[in-house]
UniProtKB/TrEMBL annotation:
Gene for this chain: LOC109066107
Superkingdom of origin organism: Eukaryota
SUPFAM superfamilies for the chain: Hairpin loop containing domain-like (SSF57414), Kringle-like (SSF57440), Trypsin-like serine proteases (SSF50494)
UniProt keyword list: Blood coagulation, Disulfide bond, Hemostasis, Hydrolase, Kringle, Protease, Repeat, Serine protease, Serine protease homolog, Signal
Name assigned to this protein: Plasminogen
Listed Gene3D superfamilies: Hepatocyte Growth Factor (3.50.4.10), Plasminogen Kringle 4 (2.40.20.10), Trypsin-like serine proteases (2.40.10.10)
Length: 718
């Protein structure tokens, strides 16, 4: 019996070897089958024996022990982000090569050797087929993909769309080629040729150092040697890969540099080589000292609002101020700097008619200082009751204005009254210096969220009042300046508390965080439609505002129910959530600005994502994190080497081409904001991506500017 159990466990363990795993991925596809299982191996077995459709992948949610089998994979459908899920794809359906004569080929090639497009297997024009999905149900004759249903010795083939040519073989690479996926095993290495997007990372392919031991301390085998392991990575064949001596290298896009080992029992291992990092932008550097030669902040906009040209670029302006010529000047990206000792930080502009301008940065000594309060403060002046001065400073502890209604429009109960709500404290006698003479909104207990009052509604004891700040609250202009942490900082960095005050946490009724979103005014939040797939009922969700930690223990926290869900047009990943009561706007809760209708964010614009999402072990769990990266124009993003035509017009791309940071550190539904004219503008809603922080695989965001009419109309009608 014990032997039987051991064999069963061994079989279950090996069942996963046929799959490739992607953490934090989700596919929304019908049909699908759902099961409750005990382990991920059980889920793999369910996929292998699925009878309702050909199972190409499965989703496993460990916390819920949910198993979802699917007929789709990353080659056929969009991959969405979902923190708690893992996507397992069958390798055989990712292969774009043939073993032997290719009877098991399940790839997506659909052209013949002469370049003719294949006819769909179920169609009868231009050729009536005698081999169809019905006659060969186990051959996976789907779409117009090349197949070999009857073991033709010439390999996979298809009927063609050329009336003069009934059928022809397809030109598909042999899996025994030089470039293979290595499998670390004590037995002979297995080989697979896998679609490249499933294996690309920020990976050290340009590493040229001299480390020659693996992460476990094994000595590397020389690249020009075939002992103890035969391989195809020959230095003379691959001169551009710098396969020197026995140094660790990455000639094939592995996650990190590696080498074959001198141990006969271990074919290869990764090497432990730290990633190089760009210097971190100093926190809070929003002004410059002296002439600004030492300024290392993140501003990239001129005093007139023009975007800075990259220092490495010669378009639209040719120049000699390059990182190579001024290595000590920190000429990174398109950040404002002063490499030549001018009067202040400056940059070349992206406007062909304006060569350069000073940047929109103040001198540190010109910023107003914080005055110390006098030892014996003067008595407060009599409060004015004019509308012009009806505003609060800070949290409104000194507010003495005339407002006497709550944020919901309910009249305030007089502070001296005990009807309808009796109270022992907060009356003119207990707090004679707090302005509690009538029923005006006040803040006698120094509440961080501002003035409040007892209400005349018997069912609501007290509520906050909406009192504007005297300085004026403006969308996209946080009171706490963000770090604006960007560059190849793996995992991003922990944000300053409340520096992204439009970030909300979308939660279950049990208050479990699962998605992000953006406050766009006091009543509405913008998020991703796929975040709402668990339920169509507004009562299934809660929204938290004004928090920095996922635990949400801050006194500034505001909690709201959702009163209405409005999903975007069919085929789009955007949704509006109406709050059951308006958010109280203050220095910790503030909307982001919406962009102009149909505005296209220029390529290389620096934008930022935020969220409490997966940190991939980089630290900062539980705190709001941020990371910045450039926008990539859709034309580039849709190249075969990037996302291969998957990005639609109503979507946009952003990310570092070389990988390293991505919105897997943020949350689905969360904001992508871009800085312009001293304001953060909501340009994107985090939607989907292929993997996490992979090279050539930027994140995809719903382009908010394409939905301005829909947003405005939806809010107006609801």
């Amino acid at each position: 019996m014990e032997v039987h159990k051991a064999v069963l466990l061994l079989c279950l363990f090996h069942v996963l070897e046929a799959y490739i795993k992607t953490d934090g991925a989700w596919i929304v596809k019908l049909p699908r089958s759902q099961y409750t299982v005990k382990t991920v191996e059980d889920c793999a077995v369910k996929c292998n024996i699925e009878t309702s459709f050909t199972c190409r992948s499965f989703l496993y949610i460990e916390k819920d022990q949910d198993c979802v089998t699917l007929p789709a994979n990353s080659k056929t459908d969009q991959i969405l982000r979902r923190m708690s899920a893992a996507l397992y794809e069958k390798k055989e359906y990712l292969l774009e090569c043939v073993n032997g004569i290719g009877t098991d080929y399940r790839g997506t090639k659909s052209k013949t050797k002469s370049g003719k497009t294949c006819q769909r297997w179920e169609e009868k024009f231009p050729h009536v087929p005698n081999i169809t999905p019905k006659t060969h149900p186990k051959a996976d004759l789907e779409s117009n993909f090349c197949r070999n249903p009857e073991g033709d010795k010439g390999g996979p083939w298809c009927y063609t769309t050329d009336q003069e040519k009934r059928w022809e073989h397809c030109d598909i690479q042999d899996c025994t080629g030089t470039f293979t996926l290595k499998v670390n095993t004590l037995k002979e290495a297995g080989h697979y040729w896998v679609q490249k997007h499933s294996l690309e990372f920020c990976s050290g392919e340009n590493y040229r150092g001299k480390i020659s031991t693996t992460a476990s301390g094994l000595t590397c085998q020389r690249w020009d040697s075939q002992k103890p392991h035969n391989h195809g990575y020959i230095p003379s064949v691959l001169p551009d890969k710098f396969l020197e001596e026995n140094y660790c290298r990455n000639p094939d896009g592995e996650p990190k540099p590696w080498c074959f080992t001198t141990s006969p029992s271990i074919r290869w291992e990764s090497c432990s080589i730290p990633r190089c990092r760009e210097p971190v932008i100093p926190e809070g550097e929003e002004c410059y000292e002296g002439d600004g030669s030492s300024y290392r902040g993140a501003m990239s906009e001129t005093i007139s609002g023009k975007k800075c040209q990259f220092w490495t670029s010669m378009e639209p302006h040719q120049h000699s101020k390059t990182p190579q010529n001024f290595p000590a000047a920190d000429l990174r990206r398109n950040l404002c700097r002063n490499p030549d000792g001018d009067q202040a930080p400056w940059c070349y502009t992206t406007d062909p008619t304006v060569r350069w301008e000073y940047c929109n940065i103040e001198r540190c000594d010109s910023k107003p200082g914080t005055q110390e309060p006098p030892t014996n403060p003067e008595p407060a002046a009599s409060p004015s009751t004019s509308q012009e001065t009806d505003c609060k400073v800070g949290n409104g502890a000194t507010y003495r204005g005339p407002t006497s209604t709550t944020i919901m429009g309910v009249t305030c109960q007089a502070w001296s009254s005990m009807t309808p709500h009796p109270h022992l404290s907060f009356n003119p006698e207990t707090h004679p210096d707090k302005g509690l003479e009538s029923n005006q909104c006040r803040n006698p207990d120094n509440d961080v969220n501002g003035p409040w009052c007892y209400t005349t509604d018997p069912n609501k004891k007290w509520d906050y009042c909406q009192i504007p700040d005297c300085d004026g609250l403006k969308c996209g202009q946080p009171a706490v300046k963000p770090k604006r942490c960007f560059g190849r900082i793996v995992g991003g960095c922990i944000s300053k508390a409340h520096s992204w005050p439009w970030q909300i946490s979308l939660r279950t009724r049990g208050k479990i965080h699962f998605c992000g979103g953006t406050l766009i005014n006091a009543h509405w939040v913008l998020t991703a439609a796929h975040c709402l797939e668990r339920s169509e009922s507004p009562s299934a969700y809660k929204i938290l505002l004004g928090i920095h930690t996922e635990r949400a223990t801050e006194s500034s926290k505001q909690e709201r129910d959702v009163s209405k869900i409005i999903k975007g047009p069919a085929g789009t990943d955007i949704a509006l959530l109406k709050l059951d009561r308006p958010a109280l706007l203050n220095d910790k809760v503030l909307p982001a600005c919406l962009p102009d209708k149909d505005y296209i964010v220029p390529s290389d614009t620096e934008c930022y994502v935020t969220g409490w999402g997966e940190t991939e072990g980089t630290g900062g769990e539980g705190f709001l994190k941020e990371t910045g990266f450039p926008v990539i124009e859709n034309k580039v993003c849709n190249r075969p080497s990037f996302l291969n035509g998957l990005v639609k017009e109503h979507q946009m791309c952003a990310g570092n081409i070389e990988g390293g940071t991505d919105s897997c550190e943020g949350d689905s539904g969360g904001p992508l904001v871009c800085f312009s004219q001293n304001t953060f503008v909501l340009q994107g809603v985090t939607s989907w991506g292929l993997g996490c922080a992979k090279a050539m695989k930027p994140g995809v965001y719903t382009r908010v500017s394409k939905f301005i009419n829909w947003i405005e109309q939806s809010m107006k009608e609801n």
